[in-house]
């Protein structure tokens, strides 16, 4: 029983899909696409050397183009801040005197415990303060 070259390339593509699923390494997926391209080339009658060249060129091209794009996307911060990250940089109103020991502010419609970033500063009720950071359930303000 003689199996044609394009079938072997498709078997190779499926075999490359297994480590892609097991390891979540996208490089295996790009090589699987290269194997599919080689199978298409074999189906059009390309010789063995040309098939291997198609596989290598497509695989290398995908890895060299897709990996930098994926790395750039992975390094980007999310555009929509949620949770305590969304509160950083917002303004709040002092409800009870805020100093290095603590106090209370109204932040995003809720009452929060707060602490002054600068240990020498004191903020009296009615003052507008900026939230610099959230430490647990305490807003650090300045």
UniProtKB/TrEMBL annotation:
<keyword id="KW-0472">Membrane</keyword>
<keyword id="KW-0812">Transmembrane</keyword>
<dbReference type="InterPro" id="IPR052165">
    <property type="entry name" value="Membrane_assoc_protease"/>
</dbReference>
<dbReference type="InterPro" id="IPR012340">
    <property type="entry name" value="NA-bd_OB-fold"/>
</dbReference>
<dbReference type="Pfam" id="PF01957">
    <property type="entry name" value="NfeD"/>
</dbReference>
<feature type="domain" description="NfeD-like C-terminal">
    <location>
        <begin position="85"/>
        <end position="141"/>
    </location>
</feature>
<keyword id="KW-1133">Transmembrane helix</keyword>
<protein>
    <submittedName>
        <fullName>NfeD family protein</fullName>
    </submittedName>
</protein>
<feature type="transmembrane region" description="Helical">
    <location>
        <begin position="6"/>
        <end position="22"/>
    </location>
</feature>
<dbReference type="InterPro" id="IPR002810">
    <property type="entry name" value="NfeD-like_C"/>
</dbReference>
<feature type="transmembrane region" description="Helical">
    <location>
        <begin position="52"/>
        <end position="70"/>
    </location>
</feature>
């Amino acid at each position: 029983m003689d199996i044609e070259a394009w079938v072997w390339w498709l078997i190779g593509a499926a075999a490359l899909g297994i480590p892609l699923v097991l390891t979540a390494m996208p490089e295996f997926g790009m090589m699987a696409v290269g194997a599919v391209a080689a199978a298409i080339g074999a189906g059009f009658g390309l010789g063995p050397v040309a098939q291997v060249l198609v596989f290598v060129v497509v695989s290398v091209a995908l890895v060299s183009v897709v990996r930098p794009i994926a790395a750039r996307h992975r390094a980007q911060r999310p555009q929509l801040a949620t949770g305590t990250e969304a509160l950083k940089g917002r303004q709040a109103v002092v409800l009870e005197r805020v100093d290095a020991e603590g106090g209370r502010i109204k932040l995003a419609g809720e009452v929060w415990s707060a602490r002054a970033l600068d240990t020498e500063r004191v903020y009296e009720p009615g003052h507008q303060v900026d939230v610099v950071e959230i430490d647990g359930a305490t807003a650090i303000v300045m």
